[in-house]
Amino acid sequence: MQKTYKILIHKEPEGSYTVSVPALPGCMTYGDTVEHAIQMAQEAIELYIEDLHERGEEIPDDSDTLEYSLNVQTA
């Protein structure tokens, strides 16, 4: 079965990229480039799901999550 996960990619000051997976608490990784970070996220998600499956826990996904960005004017 295929599940969908949104990832958040944050550029770090030293130039690498940190990735988090909001639907999977604690699932984080990083990469030297955006492409590398995405590859690492794929692997991290697969390992996280494998662990949940082995423990008999429910495997969440982002299928019911809405995504929206807001622009907020600051002083």
Average pLDDT rating: 94
Order of helices and strands: EEEH
Helix run count: 1
For the CA atoms, what is the radius of gyration?
Answer: 14 Å
The percent range for helix content is 25-40%
Look up the CATH topology. Answer: Double Stranded RNA Binding Domain
Please mark out the parts with pLDDT under 50 across 5 or more consecutive residues, or reply none: none
Structure description:
The protein has a single domain, classed as Double Stranded RNA Binding Domain. Helices cover 28% and strands 16% of the residues. It has one helix and three strands; from the N terminus they run E-E-E-H. It has one helix at 34-54; strands spanning 8-11, 17-20, 28-31. It has a three-stranded antiparallel β-sheet with strand order 1-2-3, with helices on one face. Strand 2 (17-20) and strand 3 (28-31) form a beta hairpin. The longest helix has 21 residues, at 34-54. It is globular. The mean pLDDT is 94.
Topology:
Elements lengths: L7 E4 L5 E4 L7 E4 L2 H21 L21
Antiparallel strand pairs: 1-2, 2-3
